[in-house]
Amino acid sequence: MTHVVAQLKHKQVVVFLILMVMMVISSVAITYVAHMNRRAFNDLQRQLVVKNAAQVEWGQLLLQHSTLTTPKRVERIATEKLEMETPNPDQIKMVVP
User: Fold this and answer.
1) d(CA 4, CA 2)
2) Given pLDDT bands bounded at 50, 70 and 90, which one contains residue 46?
3) Does residue 92 form part of some domain?
4) So where does this one cross the membrane (predicted)?
5) How many domains does the chain fold into?
6) Among 11, 15, 54, 87, who pairs with 91 as Cys (CB 3.0-4.6 Å)?
């Protein structure tokens, strides 16, 4: 009978040790996943800052583009720098395709 009790206690000790090892592995895994989650969140925050800066720059470029391509400005540059002028009506020829 004492042999059976000793065998039972031995099995309990083995099960206990296996459970302890599994618990330690589980706690290390949880710590690792939490760390990776924090790193991923920090990367996400950095990328959001980059995205916002790119959106601001895009808005500024659109504003600059609309300012530089106004018909009045194009006409002024054509007249002043390229010395272009509007032709007289008798100089205009219509081309029919």
Assistant:
1) 5
2) very high
3) no
4) 12-34
5) 1
6) 87
Q: Which amino acid makes up residue 43? A: D
Look at residue 25 and tell me if it is in a domain: yes
Q: Is residue 97 one of the residues assigned to a domain?
A: no
Q: What CA–CA distance (Å, rounded) separates 36 from 77? A: 57
pLDDT at 33 over 80: yes
Q: Is residue 90 part of a domain?
A: no
Could you give the 3-state DSSP secondary structure of residue 37?
helix
Hey, what amino acid is at 46? R
- Do the Cβ atoms of 84 and 78 come closer than 8 Å? yes
**Residue 88: DSSP 8-state:** P
Range of the domain at 56: 2-81
